[in-house]
Specification:
Length: 68
Amino acid sequence: MVVEFNGKDVYFNGEIIDEFDSHGPYCIEVEALGTDDDGIEYSAIGISDGDEITEIDVDSIECIGSPE
């Protein structure tokens, strides 16, 4: 899933940092890890269907690190 944040495309490709709550097997609230084209990492709250991230709360996106 691609989300625009501060003029950059951030790619949330399914890497989950934490699981907060589950509303059945196909609706799981998660903290997801994403990266932009420069390799900068972002964290955001989202919804997973068990296989992939289906929704990202754009108001929760935070920059958590730069490329090494």
